[in-house]
Structure formats: C-alpha cells, structure tokens
C-alpha cells in the first residue's frame, strides 16, 4: 500500500506540471478561441532567456523579472502585430499564425542564446525525503508546490479581481464583452502575458529537470492528452486532467508496465484521451457546444 | 414636443451595405434625452443594423453619428463607445454563461470602476471600497428587476426569460446615457412581456434612462414609446409619435401589404 501511494504521489507531482503546460493552452483558447501552437516554444524561450540572464551573473530574482518582461513584450507583439489583423477571421487562420509564431520564437531564441542544451540549476536539491512514510523527491515537491501556488493565484485572479472577471467575460462572449466596454485586444494581451508567465514556470520546471534545450518545446505534446481529457476551455478541467494523466501514467508504468514490457508511460495518456474522446468529446469538464440546426 | 431639447444622439444620413445588399440607405434619426424611442419595421428592415451602428459594431459607409453634441470619430471602437455611456442588449441574448447572474451584472459595471490591475494590487483597500460601492448600485438594480433569488445562479442554468432579465440588468448596471434594447421581449409569453414592458417604463420614468428599442409587438411599442421610427428595406418610411405612425399609410402598407390598405 505504501508503495502504491508513493507511485501515486510521484505521479501527481509530475501531473501538476502537465497541468501547468496545459493551463497555458487553455487560458489562450478560452480567451480567443485560438489553439496556441507556440505554447511549448514560449516555455523554451523562457528557459533560454532565464539561463541567458543567469549566465550574465544576474541574481535570480532579476533574471526572473527580465524573463517575465520578455514574455510580456512577446505577448503584446503577438497580439497587436500578429493577431490583430486576423480578428474576426476563421479560427484556423489564427491557429496557423501561431504555427508561424512557434518557429519565429524558436529561431529568435536560438539565434540569441545558441542551440546547445544548457543546464539550469536553481539550487533545488534533488534528494529523496520521507514524508509520512513515503519516499519523495524534494525536487518534485518543490515544483509541485510552486505549480499549486500558481494555480491558486490564477483561480483567485480570475474570480476575485475586476480584470480577471473581464477576461472571463471576453472568453464567454466577445461581442457582449465589447458592448460593456471591455477592450478585446487588451484583454487578449493580458491573457497572453499570463500564459507567458505560466510558460516561464513550466520552462523552469522542465528546464531544471532535463536541461534547457530544443526538446522543451515538445512538452506541448504532453499537454495534448491533458487538454483532451480536461476539456480545452476548462481551467479547472485541465488542472484535474493533468493530475489524472500524471498519476495514471506513473501507476500504469509501475503496475501494468512489467506485464507488457514497459514503456507504457509514453502512450498511456493518449489511451485515456481516446477513451474520453469516445464518451465525452468535449472533455470531462469542457463546455458542450450544442447548436440548433 | 422635443424641439427645445438637444438630441443625445443624432444619426445623420447613415448608409451601409453588405456586399450587394443595401442594408440602410440614408437614414437619419434623433434620440432625445429622457425618451423611449421605438425602431420598428418588418424583418430585414435594418433595425438591428442601425443599433449595431449606434453602438459601433458596424462602421457606416456614409453618414455620421453625433453623440452628446460631438461627432464620433470613425475609428472609435465599440468598447470605447460603451465607455462613453451607450449600453445595449442583444436580439439573441449575449450573456456570460460561465458566470453567475451577479457576476454578469458586475461585469456590466466594469467600465465604471477606475482602479486598474496595478492599483488593485497596490491599494487593496481602495479597490475593496470601490467594489463595495459598485455592489450597492448593482444590488439596487437586482432589486429593481426582481431577480434577488437568482443572484448566485450560474447564468447558463437560468431559463430564457430570466437570462433576458439578467442581460437587461447588465446593461442598466453601466448606468448608460443611452440604452439600446434589441427585441427585449422576443420569445416571451404575454405575462413576461408585460413584466419587461413595466421594467422598461420604470427604468425610463423612475430612473431616467434614455432608451431606444426594437420590438415586434406593436401593442407594446405603441404603449410605451414616446416616438417611433419605421424602417422598411433599409429606408426610413415614417417617424413621429405612436399615433402619427399608426395612421401613416406607408406604414400600414409595409406591414399589411398593398391589399391591406
């Protein structure tokens, strides 16, 4: 039983990091109905920038502030230069624009900071500790905690502040939001800034784990099943789905893996996603779109 | 009756076409402070298009809008126009379904709040005080529309009639100088229609809102409106008091056809 719990908790702690990546997608999708292909690359850029600033011997806090500043500039440029001319066009056009954006970010990031994998060491020890009789990694615990706090702040922001409410209004109905005086593009920009900050945290979490390198942009692929399971437009949905995926894949790997030769971890989330798609095509928590025909 | 007053909004020679369709052709109208103006006409007459121009969703091809004596710059956005004091409701209902009724109405008041995100973080107390003041206004409107008991209900779970009422409350909450209602009674039964008609009248008489509304129910329009503009196929065919309009042969023809005269 203790071992089962250990596997479960470890899975949950990884899962919350999946939630984090998926959250970036969900935020932007909710606000603007755009599936942002560049979300993974934003994490890459954030990781590269942070390492870059640390290499210049910036203290950590300053490096973080500068990285967030870069993400903010990126958010505003994206919204006002790339997306603005495409407002009210079919979503597929905005989607394709984010594809272009993904390559731009990759290219610019790597031409400034190079293509080599870089270590990111924030001095968080990766040692096993025992809590309540369970073995856990301090590393997983730290990032699980940070992600948890970030999610809590976001929930508070969206429900308790005026700006957060305005952003939710925009995600519900663009025209109605305009008619009560909410500037659409500004709201989008704020959403992209928030998604950028989420990308910074995700970039740090994954960067310290596997080095800051090109493949960070592929963590977006980990977010896909999470999004499908949780529902693309549900913030709380993707958070729960991230936990489900993290715990599920870890449990499957440990308990089913040995019987089928292992390696279940990589495809198990997609298996769950397929099942969910079959029974609940809008995800477990997504808004069902029922249109009269 | 309004000669001595300046109109709050004057639309001059508005034309707009979509592709080959001339949706509005050289329409002028005036809305005076304190009145309820009705815009009526058969389906496809261009009524909603006119509202969309007044609140800035569409830019007219020709013509200009003068609001409170000042000509509106062409590039003004709908959200800026809303901030100037023009609120509206929609024909096919546009509420924020992810929020409670109260949340919807609070958002309607958004533009009246002056603290931004930074001051919200820095002067927490100030924002809280502001929020409370706005809550009082919002609660008065909730009282006024008699929706106290659904305050916390998610808007998506409300029946149609109540959603319409929440949408109206959201528009009222902005305390607009001009309130545009696009078929506020569409799809309602007689009793609900009477309720809404009463709210619209009270909003006008007791709270002093200036209202322009589109409505198909002639009985209601004739009862509550001070003046009426009649559109047909993008042309203005008549305007005046309800009695004048009712007696106008062109209006009768538009509504009943040639043989009905």
Number of helices of chain B: 10
Strand element count of chain B: 10
Rg for CA atoms of chain B: 19 Å
Principal-axis shape of chain A:
globular
Largest sheet of chain A: 2 strands, antiparallel
Distance between the termini of chain A: 53 Å
Which consecutive residue ranges of chain A, at least 5 long each, have pLDDT under 50? none
3D architecture notes:
The complex is a heterodimer of chains A (293) and B (261). With 293 residues, chain A is mainly alpha-helical. Chain A is built from eleven helices and two strands; from the N terminus they run ααααββααααααα. Chain A has a two-stranded antiparallel ribbon. Chain A starts with a helix and ends in a 14-residue tail after the last helix. The relative contact order of chain A is 0.19. In chain B, helix 3 runs parallel beside helix 6. With 261 residues, chain B is α/β, with parallel strands linked by helices. Chain B starts with 8 loop residues before the first strand and ends in a 5-residue tail after the last helix. Chain B contains ten helices and ten strands. Chains A and B meet through helix 6 and helix 7 of A and helix 2 and helix 3 of B.
Q: TL;DR of this structure?
A:
Chain A contains eleven helices and two strands.
Keyphrases for this structure?
heterodimer, A: 293 residues, mainly alpha, two-stranded antiparallel sheet, 72% helix, B: 261 residues, alpha/beta, 2 domains, 4-stranded antiparallel beta sheet, 10 helices, 39% helix, 22% strand
Question: Can you lay out the helices and strands and say which pair or pack?
Answer:
The complex is a heterodimer of chains A (293) and B (261).
Chain A: H1 2-32, H2 39-55, H3 60-83, H4 91-113, E1 128-131, E2 134-137, H5 138-160, H6 162-172, H7 174-179, H8 184-210, H9 219-230, H10 235-260, H11 268-279
Antiparallel strand pairs in A: 1-2
Helix pairs in contact in A: 1-5, 1-6, 1-8, 1-9, 1-10, 2-3, 2-4, 2-8, 3-8, 5-6, 5-8, 6-8, 9-10, 9-11
Chain B: E1 9-18, E2 21-31, E3 36-40, H1 47-54, E4 62-67, E5 70-71, H2 78-84, E6 86-88, H3 101-108, H4 117-122, H5 124-144, H6 160-173, E7 178-182, H7 190-205, E8 211-214, H8 218-224, E9 227-232, E10 235-240, H9 242-247, H10 249-256
Parallel strand pairs in B: 3-8, 3-9, 6-7, 7-8
Antiparallel strand pairs in B: 1-2, 1-4, 4-5, 9-10
């Amino acid at each position: 039983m203790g071992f089962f719990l250990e596997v479960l908790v470890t899975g949950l702690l990884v899962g919350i990091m999946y939630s984090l990546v998926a959250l970036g997608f969900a935020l932007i999708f909710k606000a603007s109905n755009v599936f942002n292909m560049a979300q993974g690359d934003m994490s890459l850029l954030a990781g590269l920038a942070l390492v870059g600033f640390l290499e210049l011997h910036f203290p950590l806090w300053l490096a973080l502030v500068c990285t967030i500043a870069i993400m903010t500039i990126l958010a505003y440029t994206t919204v006002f230069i790339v997306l603005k001319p495409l407002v009210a066009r079919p979503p597929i056009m905005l989607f394709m624009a984010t594809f272009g954006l993904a390559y731009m970010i990759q290219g610019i990031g790597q031409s400034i900071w190079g293509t080599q994998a870089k270590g990111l060491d924030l001095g968080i020890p990766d040692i096993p500790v025992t809590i309540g009789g369970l073995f856990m990694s301090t590393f997983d615990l730290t990032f699980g905690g940070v992600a948890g706090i970030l999610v809590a702040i976001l929930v508070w922001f969206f429900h308790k502040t005026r700006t957060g409410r305005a952003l939710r209004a925009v995600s519900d109905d663009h025209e109605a939001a305009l008619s009560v005086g909410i500037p659409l593009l500004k709201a989008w920009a704020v959403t992209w800034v928030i998604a950028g900050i989420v990308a910074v945290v995700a970039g740090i979490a994954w960067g310290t784990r596997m080095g800051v390198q090109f493949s960070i942009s592929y963590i977006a692929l980990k977010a896909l099943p999470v999004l499908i399971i949780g529902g693309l437009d549900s913030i709380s949905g993707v958070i729960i789905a991230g936990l489900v995926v993290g715990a599920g894949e870890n449990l499957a790997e440990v308990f089913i893996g040995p019987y089928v030769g292992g390696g279940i971890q990589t495809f198990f989330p997609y298996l769950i996603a397929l099942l969910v798609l079959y029974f609940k095509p809008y995800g477990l928590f997504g808004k069902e779109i029922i249109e009269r025909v | 009756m309004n000669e001595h007053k300046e109109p709050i909004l004057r639309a001059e020679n508005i034309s707009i076409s979509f592709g080959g369709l001339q949706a509005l052709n050289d329409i002028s109208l005036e809305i005076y402070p304190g009145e309820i103006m009705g815009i009526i006409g058969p389906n496809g007459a261009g009524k909603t298009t006119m509202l969309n121009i007044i609140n800035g969703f569409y830019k007219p091809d020709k013509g200009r809008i003068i609001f409170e004596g000042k000509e509106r710059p062409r590039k003004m956005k709908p959200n800026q126009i809303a901030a100037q004091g023009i609120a509206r409701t929609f024909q096919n209902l546009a509420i924020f379904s992810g929020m409670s009724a109260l949340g919807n109405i609070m958002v309607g008041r958004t533009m009246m709040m002056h603290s931004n995100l930074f001051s919200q973080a820095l002067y927490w107390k100030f924002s809280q005080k502001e929020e409370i003041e706005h809550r009082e206004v919002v609660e008065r409107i909730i009282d006024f529309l008699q929706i106290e008991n659904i305050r916390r209900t998610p808007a998506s779970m409300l029946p149609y009639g109540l959603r319409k009422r929440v949408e109206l409350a959201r528009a009222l909450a902005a305390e607009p100088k001009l309130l545009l209602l696009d078929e506020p009674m569409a799809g309602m039964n007689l009793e609900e229609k009477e309720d809404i008609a009463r709210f619209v009248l009270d909003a006008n008489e007791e709270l002093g809102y200036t209202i322009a509304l589109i409505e198909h129910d002639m009985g209601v329009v004739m009862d509550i409106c001070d003046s009426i503009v009649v559109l047909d196929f993008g042309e203005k065919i008549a305007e005046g008091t309800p009695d004048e309009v009712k007696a106008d042969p062109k209006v009768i023809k538009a509504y009943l056809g040639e043989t009905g005269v």
